[in-house]
Fold each of these.
Amino acid sequence: MEITSRELKTIPTTAELTFKDTLGTWKARWGIGRMTFNVDPGLYSLGKPDTDSPVLVSANYKMSFDSLRKELKGLNAWILVLDTKGINVWCAAGKGTFGTQELLNRIAIVQLEKFVAHKTVIVPQLGAPGISAHEVRKYSGFKVIYGPVKAKDLKQFIRLGMQATTEMRTVRSSLYDRLVLTPVELVGTFKISLMIFGVLFLLNLLGLGPFGVVDFYGYVGAVIVGCVITPILLPWIPGRAFAWKGWLLGFIWAIIVNVLNGWTAVPEHSILRALGYLLILPSISAFLAMNFTGSSTFTSFSGVLKEMKVAVPAIIISIVLGVVLILANTFIKL
Amino acid sequence: MQNLYLKNVATLKMKSELCTGCGKCLEVCPHNVFLMKDSKAVILDKDRCMECGACAKNCAFNAIEVKQGVGCAFAIIMGWLTGSEPNCDCSGNSGGSCC
Ligand code: SF4
Ligand code: SF4
């Protein structure tokens, strides 16, 4: 198949993003139709590259590819797109699909040596967990140079003679970086939220619990605290574990909900119910905040595992207790 | 603003007798964990390590050891539920929280 046909094939591309590309990025951020977000693997020509032009390696996730090419205005370059099954460079490198093997294969398939006279490929630094530079060199003769973490530093990197500063080499988690990740978190909770509302509604129908508007905004608030507010305020919340940070803000939210409802002074809002909220709402926020570890850029597997061993049982126990209290409260009143 | 995570959990280990001081690990580490000292790489701050595995993979002399893994709670939960190794599988359809 591809590997046996020896015809030389490149795909032209540009540094301009069309409206459709931008819309695509926006949709992906909100988690709409993420499945179909690939580009074809292969060798792309940007501008008018010749045998001296740099070769930049990317993933076939469209957002990775787009964010690379939009930083290359005015450059002539080759872009070698690996088949990472539509997954971004960082995640694919962790899985190994953005890896030594695929890079070697792709270099062979496109016959890179026929396009460039030099023997270097520039791989994004975030792809390094998947690539063994010395092995690539051993088997293909191509030298891997790790480019900067952010595509926007690429031009300067090339200008400096393929040198990255420590600044360019370090991953930062800026407020903006965290902000753009929150919509997907939020959308991801919609389905499960609908299920929870469904169950509450059924219980209401059965006359078991008059779940009302307070439960509704209490829950929605806890979700927003866990998915949006905690990630945004991350560095400023005391403590280190994500679940703890989420729990802390969720606890504040639960107190607010209780105070808004007259704390325990109003008979309808009894102490049992107030305690129930204090147990449930922070747990929801804690769980969602914990899930943000996947979007952060500095959590380790060992760390997350350690955090979860404490957090997951605590969250489950606390939610069960809270639900029991609220139900008990309902029955006492009946 | 420096983001800090849990202390003393990372599995990163350096066998300095194997290190040739080539500097590759300093180049690939996204968290500036290493420092070159007397032509050997040393671990400057282990707590900054996110276990991405880039350093170990790119050390041609096998001087670095780290258990590579994803620091993603969602992936770990899915791993528990399906009984498989946790991996970053959610940039597909699930709208999951990772990556
Ligand atoms: S990559 Fe390996 S040999 Fe090179 S400096 Fe780092 S530890 Fe030493
Ligand atoms: S595993 Fe990744 S973060 Fe940790 S020291 Fe190695 S390169 Fe740096």
Note: Confidence is low (pLDDT under 50) at residues 91-99 of chain B.
Amino acid sequence: MTPPTSSASLSHKPASAGLAVTLSGRLDADGVSGIWDEAVRLAANPGQRLTVDAQAVDYCDGAGLALLVELRRGAEAARAEFQLDGLNQRFRDLYDQFSPQDLLPPPSHKEKPSLPEEVGRKAAILIDDIYALIAFIGEFAVALVRAAANPRRVRWRDAVNVAETAGVNAFPIIVLIGFLMGLIMAFQSAIPLKQFGAEIFVANLLALSLLRELGPLVTAIILAGRSGSAFAAEIGTMTVNEEINALRTMGLDPVRFLVVSRVLATMAMTPMLTLFFSLAGLVGGALVMLSLGYPLVAFVNQVQMSVTLGDMLGGLVKASVFSLLVCAIGCQRGLRTRGGASSVGQSTTSAVVSGIVLIAVADGVFAVVFYVMDW
Amino acid sequence: MQAPVIEVSGLTMGYGENVVLRDISFSVQPGEVFVILGGSGCGKSTLLKNMIGLFPPMSGTVSIQGRNIVGAHGRKLREILRSFGVMYQSGALFGSLTLLENICLPLEEFTRLPRDAREAVARLKLKLVGLAGSEDKLPSELSGGMQKRAAIARAMALDPAILFLDEPQAGLDPVTSAGIDELVLTLAASLGITFVIVSHELASIFAVADRVIMLDPQTKGIIAQGPPAELRDHSDNPKVRQFFNREA
Ligand SMILES: Nc1ncnc2c1ncn2[C@@H]1O[C@H](COP(=O)(O)OP(=O)(O)OP(=O)(O)O)[C@@H](O)[C@H]1O
Ligand SMILES: [Mg+2]
């Protein structure tokens, strides 16, 4: 379909006190792309007067008009007179709607900021961010207290849905990762311990680390990747579509309406997921021990001796707190979304990253608290 | 009479099992401003999306410049797609690009124009729809009406022979709306662009439309066809008269 060569052509010759350019053919995107650069070069240095003869132009669309207006702009910028002759009246009507100023970028007030300005701006954004987070924590706390005072106002149907998508549907991946981690840890630690004839202590190592530390930690990280991001994307899209504004003007607090049910559902589900994670890990470990020739009873006894109910409860408390953080930060990032599709992407990324950072910080705090409390 | 640019014949369409419109046939002449009318929810957007090949119809054909778009794919489809521009009811501007970039995108992908030429074309398009000076704004920083106008500018970027506009004037003030009418008329007259417009704005329909068809959800078909003034004054269908005379 496209013609092999440019369908428009340009010729020029010196004229009295200037330059005469003759255009012919079809001035559409195809034609113009072949002659644009030459035309612009000519217009930059026309002498005193640039005359364009468009008698032989038989079609001129947006691209052609852009060329004509650009020629005029170039000529006037070089302080030359510009004259356009012979353009068919139907294209002339369109051409007359434009002036050379239309091609200039609007005067921008954006100068490149200096370094201190940049640093200041970033700091201000960070402070705003922290401020928004604190405000959100406040709103959320109020919403939670209200929900406790009046449980019927919580959207339990939503909560059940979230419990299914964030909890039940996460079961396979949780069990798989738990099983593999248990298997790998048991195997890796069995090799050095074997040198001392202490393979049986693999059970202690596994039970303690899974129940107290790895179970809650890895479950929470999976939660951040699976559900924290989903909450941010969902609520972020609602923000972009003004659904959140619609909720606000209906007098419905988005935090109560959207966040509370999600947080309650994930907080209820995560401890269970953590238990399954640890259980799957222990099954993986048991498999390794069986293959090393220990009977299952020995492994189970050893596990029972090495951990207490307190260890397990400590792990579950951690898991709930982690899930609260992950879920709340996901919702907050969603509510904070501004702009279009790309900002939803940013919110989602930020939800996962902040979620994982919060988990790590909270884990450190727990380590200290448990140490002080001798738990 | 010239060969029609668009010829729809026996088109039946819907979603899943649910038929929205049945056995629609009509044709659009080159350079004509053709308006699709009908109450809200009667299937105007659905018809438009079937005509531009977004959804496959249940049966029938849509030929654009003599080429059937139903079932077309690959190179053939790309060629047909090049011949028209579409403005969606919700604007559908790319949110991560500025207005200028939104309009430059098709120029960049489909023409060999140098960069400053692309920007010049894009700036003139924005000027045409009255958005000069907003080049560097993101779509989310625009009002609803401004987004509509920017979407029209993007649909025109490649100067296609046919423009499909889904409710270009909903939500615009009368002055801007009249400006769009003017633009449609100038483009149809000077460049011979064919317009297929979904619209409810009576004033604008009378100002620009050469011919209209009116869809009806009860019969799932076309209940009237012809120049708008004629339908208003001489139609014997009460629904049509109601529509044109704004009676409840
Ligand atoms: N994606 C979809 N899936 C199922 N049904 C749909 C879908 N989009 C539209 N419909 C149905 O098809 C019918 C026609 O919708 P359409 O969007 O074409 O209406 P319209 O005439 O453009 O209305 P409006 O003037 O309000 O834009 C409606 O009954 C609608 O419920
Ligand atoms: Mg519609």
Note: Chain A has twelve helices and four strands.
